[in-house]
Structures are given as structure tokens and as C-alpha cells.
Amino acid sequence: MDVCFYFQLHQPRRVRRYQVFDIGSGSSYFDDVRNADTLRRVATRCYLPATRMLTELARNEGARVAMSVSGVLLEQLASTSPETIESLQVLVASGGAELLSETSHHSLASRQNMDEFAVQVTLHRAMMRRTFGVTPRVFRNTELIVSDALTPLVASLGFDAMLVEGADAVLGWQSPNYVYASTTAPLMRLLPRNYRLSDDVAFRFGARDWSEWPLTADKYAAWIAANNGDVVNVFMDFETFGEHQDAGSGILDFLRALPGALRKNGVTMVTPSELAKRKPAGLLSFPNATSWADTERDVSAWLGNGLQYAAHARLYGLRDAVLASGNSELVSTWRQLSTSDHFYYMSTKWHADGDVHTYFSPYANPYDAYISFMNVLRDVEQRLGTAPRQLKTADRRPQTADRSRAATAKPKTADRRPQTAPRANGKRGNREAKTAGRSKKAKVRKK
Amino acid sequence: MRVLMFGWEYPPYAAGGLATATISLAAGLARLGHPVTLVVPFPAAADGGGVRVVSASDVSPNLRTLRVASRLTPYTSPVSAATAAATAVPAARAPWARRAEPSAYRETLFEDVDDYATAARQIAALHAHDIIHAHDWMAYAAGKAARDVSGAPLVAHIHATEHDRSGEGRNAEILRRERDGLRDADRVIANSHLTKRHVVGEYGVDERLVDVVHWGIERPVIGDVRLPSPFGRTAPIVAFVGRVVMQKGPDYFIEAAAKVAAVHPTVCFVVAGTGDMLPRLFDRCIELGIAHRVYFTGGLSHPDIDRLYRMATVVVMPSVSEPFGLVALESLRAGTPVIVSKASGVTEAVANLITVDFWDVNDIADKMLAVITDPALARELRARARDELGDSHLGPDEPARLTAASFAAALAGHQTMAVT
After folding, report:
1. Which own/partner pairs from A116-123 qualify as long-range (CB within 8 Å, at least 24 positions apart)?
2. pTM of the prediction?
3. In this predicted model, what pLDDT tens digit does every residue of A132-180 receive, in sequence order?
């Protein structure tokens, strides 16, 4: 029996509580302080210790895993935690981690705009080459989102295999413990996640009310060995190690003991590109978009309610104008807004999985997330000059006595705004000059 | 269980959530098969004492109402006299507004409370009952008097504490009566966990004796029941519904309204309710230059409030302190999204609300604008809240069911004590 571990590293650049009164002010869309704090915390608790441990395990025990690092995380690490990047580079160079490809901004582009999807994949590939000197051959889409329409496109972008969710609805009677091919792209290998064994670590590891608690590396390796099939695919967030499951739960000790325990149980660690060379055991079809999220295993966590549709459509409606603007800072910001987490925070699934949504959200509720995001998009529109109407225009037919009043009342609305900031109708060049500096600051958070 | 309830009558012009809630709870208990004798202070003080039985057979054969002449109304306070007269003159009136009478007020508030207790003693002797249920501090003395007569357990229901009603200006005598009434009761029902925390924390009531019963509401009506804005199709209404007192944060509403009016050319604001802060609000609206955009209706009858909900695009409750916030449920039921203070008990029961810090005027204004300018947001809030109101935990009989369970616990505890 083989096992394939894959860990995802991602933190969005979180949008701050951006109010309508911030529009046109030139202030940052992002919660820079919170993003940096979170990134430092996750780096200290998880990225650095776990990466170093994997390097050690690779050197001493030949452990091998797969990882992918979102571009939006990499950008933020560059300024907030460069030592994390170095640590990852050492791990990759040691042969302990195979890097996978994904969209540069952990976006939902595959659900909205295939051109943008291809661009973001290309961008990410370039980042991997630049930062790590490797060119990934295996793709994993944001949150393992896949559909029959997507697999041919991924194949055409030059990938041999793709990670997918081993959803019951897709597999039917088939086991997730084999390599499959796509019905719509027969050369494309599909590696389905074994969600039970993945969630045993990612969700249940620290749960004291779980009948199997505490989970030891030996016990876990024995479970894997006892599975039928060729390979068990264990995919999860890298943040599991030290962040989602804190160090006090023993998760890092578990990780350290795992390669030895696997060997003892006759389980071999393999990587996705090795699996991509294997013959498929059968075909898998994804007529509906499938992901690894929530109990539904669909895309409803990000695109499941009217708010999410409206926000996502409005964002992509700006794409052509943003690209045509020739303003690289604006293009970069727009891509950062495409990160899936922004839409995840707008989810109104209140029950069961909704708890997970609330737990990870920087907002009081999904409506706050939506309102902030839409205000940001209005600001982008104003910068582009495509705003359908200027909200901040004064009353066009004011009662005469009131005109002066309205004018004097106005500055009060701006008490959070620098007095020098241009208004909605201000000179665009000026505002862009002001905002150009802000992309240098890194921001982040976990999802 | 035969229930003797000391509560508040459904008023012709709504003073707030308490009277509405009391009558619906009494009706709910009656529907569950518990005969209820509801004793309510009768506002016509000139009637001069005595008890009148009012036919309530249209509600349920199990419910009858006794009206006791008294000047008590749910929200009278001994310090509001000076402003009571001033509150009767709204600056502007919405076209559908009807005038409400200023609330009855007497300087002898505590005497009135004691008179109510004396009447309660007589009533308790005449009407057989197994449990006594008293709503808020003015009825606690009556409940206790009834218990002295019958020995039945007393359940004190708390809808708002004096801290909620009066903030820093709270009245020491009311505080004392409220605390004693709650500590003396066999069991306490709080209308939210927020209120329970106050009762346990401030008054030292044993938390094991405090049950939380959120309000429920009738199911939303199916189909489009929205009404057009009387100010025109392009003039959305942002409404404030509630007593115009410090506790409800109407001043924050006005400050936020000014910010919204500065950037939105047509929006109108309606303040429905009366209270001692009205004169100050009129002045402030003039100062801010938004007097022509803000309509003060005074107190409205319940059907008129319901019409207002249906006309409004959003209802805003920036309460400094809101033990529950029944207005939020009423508004959602009418299909109108609600922006509510985080310091509101209703946020424990309903998820699909927009929440704000009451003091964060920019945030309130931002969210008002978002709802009135973004149909997708309003639609989502409306649809989700409608789904949520269909859930059983907000059903109209749920409060009665939980209250009956609390009664049973009180009876059980009472019997245990009697044995020991």
C-alpha cells in the first residue's frame, strides 16, 4: 500500500471593514495589520516548525510529500516572513516536497472566466519557477474544485494529473484508493482524496470526544495499511500542523513519528507525479462542480447565495477594464480580490458547516463581508471611471434652504478620511499615486 | 396548570414590545391548554378601582382578562414627567401617522404599584390557580401578594432590567424592587441570555433558577406583501421603530441618517414612536439640515406599524441596550431587513441580521446605504430571514411551550421545598 500526502499552504489578503465613506479616499482595501499578524502567527506555529521537520524527515527517513503554495500567500510571505520562503526552498531542494500548481490567487476563476483561470495558472507556474526553480507537473485547483469541463483545459495547460475530491457522489461504488482518468480528458490522471483518512487528522486529531482519540502515528499507519487499493491520498491544509490543531494536541509529534510508523506497516510514501505515471483503474466523471468543502462537496461554500453570485459577477465584470487600464497595481489588487476566501466569508450556511465558516471569518457576519467587498468594488469602478453612477454626488434637487446645510454636513462624513484625500470626482492620477505604495505592504490571514 | 398572570394589556398605540409579547404569550399558553387569568392594569384611572372581566373569548376560551384600574403602563418611570408633555408635538408627520396619546403618568408611581398589589391579593383569593406569573418589576409586588394568599409558586418574567431602561440614570427604588422581586421569585424567565447574564451578574439571582425564553413570531405571510414608499418609488425609507428614549439609541439613528442623506439624494427616514428624546432629536435634525428628510410619526397603532414595516427598505435598531428586540422579528416577518445593535438579545435567536455597534455611526450609515442601494443584499436578507422565521425555534407557540416548561420546573421545585 502507498500513501500520498498533499498539504495546501494559503492565506488570503483579507479585506478590511471598508465603508462607503472610504470610497475615493485612496486608503488600502486590506486589513494590513491583521493580515501580517496572522501570517506571523501561522508561520511561527506551523509553517516554520512543520517545514523544518519535513526537511529533517526527508533527509533522515526519505519522507516525501506534496505541497502547494498559493501565490497570494507567497507575495505576503516575501515581506512578512521571508524565512518561511527560505525554509520552503530548503525543503523543496531536499527532495522532501513536490510542489504542485494552482491558480496564483487561490481564485474561483475556473467557475467564472477560463481566460483568467489560464492566466492565473501561468502566473503561479512562473512564481514556482522563480522562487523554487521547479515546474510543477500536477495541478490542484482551488479547494479541489473540478468539473468535466475543467479537466480538458487543465490538460491543455500541460499537466499530467490533478487532485480531486473522492466524493461519494462521484465515486459511487468505486474506491478512492486508486488512480483514475478523466472521462473528458482521458490522458489526465485524477487522484481522489480519501476524505475519511484525511479528516481523521485534519478535523478529528485533537477531538477528545472522538472514540479513537488519541490518534497515534502507529494507529494511523495501520489504518492506511489496512485499506484496500493501491494508494491512500491524504490531502489537507498544511495549517493543520500547529494552527488548526495546535502543538499542544501533539500534532507535530504525530508528524515526526509518521514516516517510521508507515515504514513499519509496509506503507510507502509516494508523490502525485509518481502516481501520474500509473495506469488508471477506471474513469471518473464530474458532471457537477465538486470540491473538498462542507458536507455538500460542491462550490456552494463560495458561490451558493445571492450575495456571493452578485459579488463574484461584479468582480469579473471589471476584468476587461482593469486589464485595459495598464495599471499594474490595480491589476494586482483586482487579482487579490479574486481569492476564494472573500466569498467564503459571505456564506450564509449557518448550520453545521456554517460554524466552520464563522470560525475562520474576520467579519461579524457574512453581510459585513459582502458590504465591505462591494464598497471596495465601487472604489475600483471609480478608479476605472466605470462607476455606473456616483453615489457621493450631492442632492440634485435640494430644497433651497438646505443646499448649504448639506454641503457643510458633508465633511463630517469624512472624519476617518485624510482631509487631503481626493473625493469621488477627484483626479484619478493623484489617487493612484497615493495607492501605489500600498501593495508593497504584505497582508494576510488564514482562511 | 391554571395560570394567574400579572401582565400588560395590548395597547391601542404600541408603547413597545412588552404588551405585545405578554398577550401573545398568554394566548399561547391558553392554546396549549393551560387556563390563563390575565390581570392587566387598566389605563383609565378615572374608573376608580375594582376589577373588570373583559371577554377574550375571541382569543381562546382558556384565556380571560381582568382589568384593574391603574395608572401603570409598562414603561412609565418617575423621572420622565418633565418631558412627557413635550413629546406630544412631532415636527413632521408621515401621511399615514395617527396621533398617540401621551402615556399616563403619575408621581405616585410606587403607590400605584402597591395599589396593584392590593388588588392582586383580592384577585388571588377569588381565582383558583396553580402558578403565578408576573411580568417585569411593576407586577412583581402583585405576584408576591398573590403568592402570599395562595401559596402557589411565583415565576418572575424579566423583559428589561432597570439598567436596560435607564442606563446611568437608573432609579434606586426601582432597582431595589426589581432585585428583590427576582430574588424572591421561585423561578425567573429571562427573554435572552443577555438578560439572564444581567440578572445573574447584577442581582445575584441563582443562575440555575433562570430559564431563557426567546420571543417567537407568527410565520411570515406567503407572497409579496410589500407596500410602495409613500415618498415615491425612488425614495427608500429607513425606519426607526421603538420608544424614543436613550436605551433605543435614536440619536445614533439620526446621526447616521445625516451621513446617509449627504450621499443619497432621495432616501427618507421615519422615526415611529414617542419618548423623552424627541425634542432633542428635532433640534438635531435641524442642525444637521435633514429636517425635511426625517419624519416623526409619534406612537403608531399596530396596523400602522405593520404598514410602515412593509413600506420601509430597512429598519434600524441602534439600541444601547436591547434585552430582546421584538421589533426585529416583526420587521423580518414583514419582509424588511433589520440592522440591529450587537447589544441585542435577538441576535442570539436570529442569524440573518446586519449587526452594528450602536456608537459606530459611520458603520450604521454604511450599512443603511448598502441595504438601500443594493437589491441583491436586501433580497438575500429578506429570503434568508424568511427561511429562518420558518424554523421551529422562532415559532409562535415556542415561547409558551418553554414558559410552561419553566412553570413545571417551578412547581417541582416548590413541592420539593414544601417537603423539606
Report:
1. A116/A316, A116/A319, A116/A338, A117/A153, A118/A153, A118/A157, A120/A71, A120/A335, A120/A338, A121/A157, A122/A157, A123/A71
2. 0.84
3. 999 999 999 999 999 999 999 999 999 999 999 999 999 999 999 999 9
Per-residue pLDDT, A232? 97
User: Please, what are the domains in chain B?
Assistant: 3-71+108-216+396-419 (3.40.50.2000), 237-391 (3.40.50.2000)
Closest CA to B365 of B318, B309, B297: B318
Distance, CA of B362 to CA of B308 (rounded, Å): 25
Name which of B265, B288, B379 is nearest A396 (Cβ-Cβ): B265
**Partner residue opposite B380 with nearest CB, options A305, A364, A416:** A305
> How deeply is A367 buried, as exposed, middle or buried, from its count of CB atoms within 10 A (0-12, 13-18, 19+)?
buried
Residue B363 to residue A18: CA distance in whole angstroms: 9
pLDDT of B13 > 50? The answer is: no
Chain A residues within 8 A of B374 when measuring between CB atoms: 310, 374
The answer to whether residue B289 neighbours chain A at the CB level (below 8 Å) is yes
Q: What is the pLDDT of residue A424?
A: 39
Beta bridge partners of residue A3, listed in sequence order: A232, A269
All structural domains of chain A: 2-284 (3.20.110.20), 301-425+439-444 (no CATH)
Which of A221-225, A333-337, A389-393, B389-393 is predicted with the least confidence, judged by mean pLDDT? A389-393
Residue B163: the pLDDT is 85
What pLDDT is attached to residue B46? 35
pLDDT 10s digits, A407-428: 444 444 434 444 443 333 433 3
| pLDDT bracket for residue B117 (50, 70, 90) | confident
Residue A74: pLDDT above 90? yes
B204-243 per-position pLDDT tens digit: 999 999 999 998 888 776 666 788 888 888 899 999 999 8
Q: How many residues does chain B have?
A: 420
The SS3 of residue A361 is coil
Please answer yes or no on whether B265 and A392 come within 8 Å at the CB atom: no
Beta-bridge partner residues of B159: none
Residue A378 CA: distances (Å) to CA of A225, A374, A375, A411: 54, 6, 5, 20
Q: CA-CA distance, A262 to A226, in Å (whole number)?
A: 12
CB contact under 8 A, B263 and A392: yes
Please provide the average confidence, as pLDDT, over all residues in chain A: 87
Beta bridge partners of B69: B42
Instruction: Indicate the burial class of B313 (C-beta count within 10 angstroms; 0-12, 13-18, 19 or more).
Output: buried
A86 is catalytic: no
Q: Contact, B313 vs B371, CB < 8 A? A: yes
pLDDT in tens, A276-305: 999 999 999 999 999 998 888 999 999 999
CB contact (8 A) between residue A409 and residue B258: yes
Compare CB distances from A370 to B352, B377, B383 and report the shortest one's residue.
Answer: B377
| Over residues B76-99, mean pLDDT | 38
Interface test with B, best of A25, A357, A405, A423 (most B CBs within 10 A): A405
Residue B279 pLDDT greater than 90, yes or no: yes
Identified catalytic residue from A75, A98, A102, A143: A143
**Residue of A413, A423, A425 to mutate when probing chain B, most B C-beta within 10 A:** A413
- Asked whether the bond before A214 is cis by omega within 30 degrees of 0, the reply is yes
Closest Cβ opposite residue B369 in set A20, A350, A399: A20
Query: Among all residues of chain B, which has the CA nearest to that of A21?
Result: B366
Identify all chain A residues contacting B264, using CB atoms and an 8 Å cutoff: 391
Q: Do A307 and B354 touch (CB under 8 A)?
A: no
Candidates A22, A371, A376: best to mutate against B (most CBs of B within 10 A) is A371
Q: Is B238 exposed, middle or buried (0-12, 13-18, 19+ CB in 10 A)?
A: buried
